[in-house]
Amino acid sequence: MSERKAIFITGGGSGIGRAIALHFGAKGWFVGLGDIDEAGMAETARLLDNGFNYSHRLDVRDRQAWDTALGAFALAAGGKIHVLANNAGIPVGGQLADNSVDEIERCLDINLKGVLFGAQAVYPYLKETAPDSCLLNTASAAGIYGTAGASIYCATKFGVRGITESLDAEWAEDRIKVADLMPSFIETPLLDKNPNAKTNENVRQRVLDAGLEITPVEDVAQAAWNAVHGDDLHVVVGKTARRVRFAARWVPARMRKMARGSLRPLGQ
């Protein structure tokens, strides 16, 4: 029997993280879940229902907690980690002038520092399992072109994109694959959250008002599988993300005009 591969997924208690967990679990992988949402992880584990999963409460902002979580998961999975899905993230939107210091710092800490800490902590595990290993970061269409009403979120996702490109080069000699996902608006609970504390309008309503499509979360899970097993550095998911990538590359003046004419974020 071939070795059962192991993937650890942050933000595994819901949304994209849960979808990735279910997809890889159905393929026979040992799945590790990291999240601060213990009830959500318990539900994901119940849905996996294959006996090959492990959950660990993890705040991705805590560097030491990363070492503890990955060490425990590696032990449960037979000593090896093949993939880290650096997926945990939160949305923050609205005018920069309206965002509080707490909102700014929390988004930066989770979306950006959490990705760096995860990459740093998982590196020795991925080096050991290379060339069958992969660091998979969740970026966003908001990391393709910045949009009004999402400056903080865009900053973090451009940062994730930069981390991906940097580590792709840095870890090349170790034969560790590095990639990121760039989804547009995905059908997850994040759509039902308010973009900041000063508004009662949730993200979903803004997306619908702007006439943009909402992509099934299963599409992101399939894209994650393709990214781990393919050669693409940036994996774009959803019609909106593909349109933004095309416009930013081929008609940048039009993209700039579109961005100036809308306060709707174009991110995950």
From TrEMBL:
<dbReference type="GO" id="GO:0047560">
    <property type="term" value="F:3-dehydrosphinganine reductase activity"/>
</dbReference>
<protein>
    <submittedName>
        <fullName>3-dehydrosphinganine reductase</fullName>
        <ecNumber>1.1.1.102</ecNumber>
    </submittedName>
</protein>
<dbReference type="InterPro" id="IPR036291">
    <property type="entry name" value="NAD(P)-bd_dom_sf"/>
</dbReference>
<keyword id="KW-0560">Oxidoreductase</keyword>
<comment type="similarity">
    <text>Belongs to the short-chain dehydrogenases/reductases (SDR) family.</text>
</comment>
<dbReference type="InterPro" id="IPR002347">
    <property type="entry name" value="SDR_fam"/>
</dbReference>
<dbReference type="Pfam" id="PF00106">
    <property type="entry name" value="adh_short"/>
</dbReference>
